[in-house]
Design goal:
By secondary structure, this protein is an alpha+beta fold. It contains four helices and ten strands, in the order H-E-H-H-E-E-E-E-E-H-E-E-E-E. The strands form two sheets. Strands 3, 4, 5, 7, 8, 9 and 10 form a seven-stranded antiparallel sheet that branches. The chain has a three-stranded antiparallel sheet with strand order 1-2-6. Strand 7 and strand 8 form a beta hairpin. Helix 2 runs antiparallel to helix 3. The chain is elongated and about 105 Å long. The model has no long low-confidence stretch (mean pLDDT about 80).
């Protein structure tokens, strides 16, 4: 009887050990499968993003830099028209040159500039319907200073399905910056944020741009 009880105890311990090993293996295996599925979903999302999202290139210039660049171009009716428009701008105007080097269309592009020296915001002209394949566009910014709340509210109204337009994105930073908001053909919202500063020679120096998906 003692021998039988000992066998039953040992058998029970072996079964429990086997169950524990199986549970551990199952946990590791399912975790690996979950990680693999998560990686595949991220890859699919990245591939989809690359398929539909335009990646805009943005630079910031002042009125004086814009006038100089236009004057350096070859004479043409278009040059004369652009030069006249640029000279009519207020002296403190900022201009964002937005280029779409991709084959994906950017819709409803709008811009905001934060001026670190005076700690206020400027809004760019609205109503730009589309920046097509290999196209570029200039967004001119008004003189009227706006508060952080005003630009957050205005931009949120323009892009209601964006979830990350807030005081963290449009913050009071140490350096000035521009933010260009736009949509893809599926109505997803993106932005390109780029800090800049003016050096001792009065030239605008651009930092590395940040591309963000906001919805």
């Amino acid at each position: 009887m003692d021998h039988l009880q000992a066998v039953l105890v040992i058998t029970g311990l072996v079964v429990q050990a086997l169950l524990a090993v199986f549970a551990l293996w199952y946990t590791i295996e399912t975790r690996a499968l979950r990680l693999q599925a998560s990686a595949q979903l991220k890859l699919i999302g990245r591939q989809h993003l690359l398929a539909v999202a335009p990646f805009l290139m943005v630079s910031v210039t002042t009125k004086s830099e814009l006038v100089q660049s236009i004057e350096a171009q070859q004479d043409s009716p278009e040059k004369a028209e652009r030069l006249e428009s640029a000279n009519a701008l207020p002296q403190e105007t900022f201009v964002c040159a937005v280029e779409n080097p991709t084959s994906r269309i950017a819709l409803h592009a709008e811009g905001v500039i934060y001026v670190a020296e005076s700690k206020h915001f400027l809004e760019g002209e609205k109503g730009l319907a589309c920046i097509g394949e290999k196209e570029d566009y200039e967004i001119w910014f008004g003189e009227d200073p706006l508060t952080q709340k005003e630009v957050v509210d205005s931009t949120t109204a323009s892009f209601p399905n964006a979830t990350k337009i807030d005081g963290d994105l449009l913050d009071h930073a140490d350096e000035s910056y521009s933010v260009i908001f736009f949509k893809d053909i599926e109505e997803s919202v993106y932005c390109v944020k780029r800090a800049f500063y003016t050096d001792e020679d009065g030239d605008t120096i651009l930092r590395k741009p940040q591309f963000l998906k906001l919805s």
